[in-house]
Amino acid sequence: MAETPTRAGFVALIGEPNAGKSTLLNRMVGAKVSIVTHKVQTTRSRIRGVALEGQSQIVFVDTPGIFKPRRRLDRSMVAAAWGGAADADIVVLLVEAHRGITEGVSEILDLLPDVTKGRTVALAINKIDRVAAPRLLALTQELNDRFAFEHTFLISAEKGSGVDDLRTWLAEGLPEEPWLYPEDQIADLPMRQIAAEITREKLTLRLHQELPYQLTVETETWEERKDGSARIDQVVYVARDGHKGIVLGRGGETAKAVSRAARLELEEFLGRKVHLFLQVKVRPGWLDEAERYREMGLDFDTPD
Questions:
Q1: What is the pLDDT of residues 253-275, one digit of tens each?
Q2: Distance between CA atoms of 295 and 77, rounded to whole angstroms?
Q3: CATH 3.30.300.20, the chain: domain bounds
C-alpha cells in the first residue's frame, strides 16, 4: 500500500487585538509559544508555532492584532499582520462571538478579498460560551454574507471546544509537501527571542495602562553552563526615566517579581535550571530605532 503523503504549509491567524489568536495558537501547538494577556496588542511579531496532525505539519503564524495604527510601531505591527495573511496557504479570521461585527472587524472584512486573493479563508467565531445559540447563528450568517468563507467554526480557544475540528480541517487542506521543520520543533523563533517574549509577558501582566507598549525586552547574552543550566541576561528598554522606576518598583520589588515569574516559566519550558538577570535601561527614542524593530521581527520602514 502506498504511504499517506505528508502535508505542510502556513496558516495565518488574523483578527482584532484580543480576539484569542495567541490562545488558539498555544492550544493548537500544545505549548506556550505566544504571549497571552488580558491587554490588547501584546503580540508584536509573526510568531510561528508548529503543530502536527496525522501526516500534516501545520505552521501557524500568530499575527499582531489588526487595528488603526497611530505610531510607527503600530504601523509595523499591522503591516506584519497583513503580511502574514498574504503569505499563508490558509487564513483563519477570528471574531469574538460576544462583540460581533465591530468597526474593526468590518474593516478587516472589507480588506480580505484583496489580501487573501487565491487563498483559502476560514472563519472561527471564538468565545462561543459567552453568547446564546440564536445570536451565534445570526452572527454566522451575517459574517458569511459579508465574505465567502470556505468553512465556519464555532470555537472556544480557551476551553478547547471546536479546536480539534478546526485543526483536522486545516491539516487536510494543506498542500502535499515535505515537512518544513523537525518533528520535535514547536516554534521557529530563536530561544533568545522566546525568552524575551516570556519576560515581556510578565511585565505586561504586572504593569498597567500605557507602559507595556512603551517598553521592549531583549536578550543580550545566553550562556550555556557546564552544569547544564543557562545564564540569561536581558535588558528592558523603556522610553522615559519615570518608566524605569515603575518597572523596578519600590526597592526593585516589581523587577524581582517579574524576573522570578519569567525564570520559572523558562525553566519549565526548557526543562532545566535558568539563571535570569534583568537590567532596566532608558532609551528615549527606542520606538524609532531600526535595531529594536529587527529584534522584534518587524519591518522598520513601514509606509504611513
A1: 999 999 999 999 888 877 789 99
A2: 13
A3: 191-295
